[in-house]
Write a structure and sequence with these properties.
Chain lengths: ~220, ~220
């Protein structure tokens, strides 16, 4: 089965230069927004280090959901994930002064969350579920007939099913690249792996997500 | 079987950077290199389309996912309150008034502005001390708690029509003060500062010179 875009009949834009210009402006917008966010988060963290509770509450609102979802890609128990959110955010409150500004604030916070999640996984041991690629290939839903168009909700459902078939590592890097929008250097720092491994892992994560989506019979909606 | 630790040999180097070209975090040099490559490589343009679509769908998917339950926020608030009580950090707006008072007293013990306040007080004290030392000191203003200044006592009768203001002014000019009186015949005992006989005579003469105020003046035997 062809991948999303080709399956939906959408083709690559006829004028590649036009497309590249559009990409370029989009990237400038993304980069500017990212820099502003990071500056705001650094400012908030400095205020937290000075003991300002209001700044912490603002930072908490910005990261509560993100940390929870990120941790949920590593531990599959929502209750454990919530406990880790609490532990992580309290570590931020108590240790804001130790932030060395050598990375983004988000990388620092996700790093704390990741260590706590890995500790939780070690504590839970074998009770954790971890789906392998082989399992995923075996899991297309036979009752789901191909459809020519699917609405957004169905896309989300398929995305959820496809993501759930990925390994923890692949779910994690896809989220860090496409949702948290971290540079590969920051991801390498966060995961304590070489940048070349980050690129490789993201490449295969994307390939496998594509395969799972195809296996689940997804058809892309018209954007 | 592909090696999960290596990229495919036929993959363009720029293709490995495409995820970050899409999320806009590549360094400028890499950004330009990928952009130039995309101008000529249809395969990588197709890959870029797929990654862009994947990014859009993943963002939409994660945006729609729920966050933690309200108990998480409450747990963090409880821990913050506990930290505030034990470490004296910024108090919560929704606490019992006794806890607020307690935190206020604690903050007085270890305020961050205490060293600054201390420095200001010390500088102010030093300034006052220096100002006091530079002021001219009149010898007859200096008193001692253990050694009485040289004084003499006079018996003075004032004119009946002399006003209290005039009497007070005259006594001030000779550094004197009423210490006793009046007696039944209207006599006061006045003590004046006089460290020697000539000063005493001078002040006696001055008093006698104001006959409109002083009716009579004489020394009290020591």
């Amino acid at each position: 089965m062809a991948f999303l875009l080709r399956a939906s009949g959408k083709c690559v834009t006829a004028d590649p230069l036009h497309r590249l210009r559009a990409d370029w402006f989009e990237q400038i917008r993304v980069m500017a927004t990212t820099d502003e966010h990071d500056a705001l988060h650094s400012h908030l963290l400095a205020s937290v280090a000075a003991g300002e509770r209001a700044a912490f509450e603002q930072l908490y609102r910005l990261y509560e959901k993100r940390v929870f979802q990120y941790v949920s890609t590593l531990v599959y128990d929502p209750t454990v994930a919530e406990d880790i959110v609490v532990e992580t955010m309290m570590a931020v409150w108590r240790g804001a002064a130790s932030f060395a500004s050598t990375s983004r604030v988000s990388t620092w916070i996700f790093g704390i969350a990741r260590h706590k999640a890995l500790d939780a996984i070690r504590r839970m041991g074998r009770h954790q579920r971890d789906v392998t690629l082989e399992e995923a290939v075996e899991l297309p839903n036979p009752q789901e007939s191909p459809q020519d168009s699917v609405d957004r909700k169905q896309v989300a459902t398929l995305m959820q099913r496809a993501l759930s078939k990925l390994s923890r590592e692949h779910q994690e890097v896809l989220r860090l690249v496409f949702y948290e929008e971290l540079p590969y250097e920051e991801i390498a720092t966060l995961l304590s792996i070489p940048t070349s491994t980050v690129k490789t892992r993201v490449y295969y994560a994307k390939q496998r997500l594509k395969k799972h989506l195809e296996a689940l019979g997804q058809k892309a909606p018209n954007p | 079987m592909t090696d999960p630790n290596a990229l495919p040999a036929n993959l363009h180097p720029e293709a490995a950077l495409l995820p970050w070209y899409v999320n806009g975090t590549l360094r400028e040099q890499d950004q330009q290199q990928v952009a130039r490559h995309l101008e000529t490589c249809a395969v990588c343009r197709a890959e870029l389309e797929e990654l862009s679509y994947m990014r859009t769908e993943l963002r939409r998917f994660y945006d729609a996912q729920p966050g933690p339950s309200p108990r998480t926020t409450q747990a963090v608030r409880d821990l913050l309150d506990r930290d505030t009580l034990t470490q004296g950090k910024v108090p919560s707006a929704k606490r019992h008034w006794l806890e607020t008072v307690d935190s206020w007293f604690r903050s007085l013990l270890m305020p961050r502005w205490a060293p600054t306040l201390l420095a200001i007080v010390l500088v102010a004290q030093l300034g006052v001390l220096l100002w006091t030392l530079t002021q001219p000191v009149s010898s007859d203003q200096v008193t001692s708690r253990s050694i009485s200044p040289p004084t003499a006592r006079l018996r003075v009768t004032f004119q009946g029509q002399a006003s209290a203001t005039a009497i007070e002014s005259l006594l001030h000019s000779v550094r004197g003060r009423i210490v006793d009186g009046p007696t039944a015949d209207g006599m006061y005992t006045v003590e004046i500062l006089a460290d020697n006989e000539s000063t005493l005579q001078k002040k006696l003469t001055e008093l006698q010179g104001h006959s409109e105020i002083v009716q009579s003046v004489g020394r009290v035997a020591p």
